Amino acid sequence: MIQMKGLTKSFKQGQEQTKVLKGIDLTIKEGEFVAIMGPSGSGKSTLLQLVGGLDLPTSGDIQINDHQLHKMNEKERTIFRRKHMGFVFQNYQLLPTLTVKENVSFPIHADRKVSKQDEERVNQLIQAVGLDGYGDKKANVLSGGQQQRVAVARAIANQPAVLLADEPTGNLDREKAEEILHLLAEFHRKEGQTIVMVTHDIFAAGFADRIILFKDGLVDQEIRREDEQYAEYLAHFMA
């Protein structure tokens, strides 16, 4: 599904070049739920932006299925994101004056005329995230947890091939965070969603099939759910 080879990213600060990613080789399989962890400045959020086509690598290749993002121009990347990718951000990034239903259906509107089938899917998603009856409420009257539920529904409304989540529970308390994580896991299970989630929370990472640890712009370690040390690793960090 997602393949990165020799991926680097540098940023210019004054006269100096800061290398954030230093040669990432990473493959994420279709239908896999991956959590990326690491200290601040390790490059995990930068990697997510490159995967989402929100930025371009300094060097290296990034391919999603048969599409080479690094070879697309800005317009092509925008169309690709709209058709194939969903995003969940830490700060929700809803349109506050639109209703829940309008926010969830926004990616569909951007791509095509909304059909009756699309409307049914939007209503089903609103119900699936526990907001039945909230469809006509404005986003700005909802709680943080409710807004993030809307953001999750919006992210998968267009049935994207890849869902990217950047600290999706960072602004939520543990109870609300757990609700959001269960939602992501449920959509992953039911719709075969490929999910790449950046998080600093080992509890959140425990919902993933694989945890990838970043350090100094490189992949430092990978732990898979089937590995014997997976549960031990989680228990150690959650103690």
From TrEMBL:
Residues 2-238 form the ABC transporter domain. SUPFAM superfamilies: P-loop containing nucleoside triphosphate hydrolases. Transmembrane segments: none annotated. Keywords: ATP-binding, Nucleotide-binding, Transport. This is ABC transporter ATP-binding protein. InterPro entries: AAA+_ATPase (IPR003593), ABC_transporter-like_ATP-bd (IPR003439), ABC_transporter-like_CS (IPR017871), ABC_transpr_LolD-like (IPR015854), MacB-like_ATP-bd (IPR017911), P-loop_NTPase (IPR027417). It comes from the Bacteria. The lineage of its organism: Bacteria, Bacillati, Bacillota, Bacilli, Bacillales. GO terms for molecular function: ATP binding. It comes from Alkalicoccobacillus gibsonii. The keyword Acetylation does not apply.
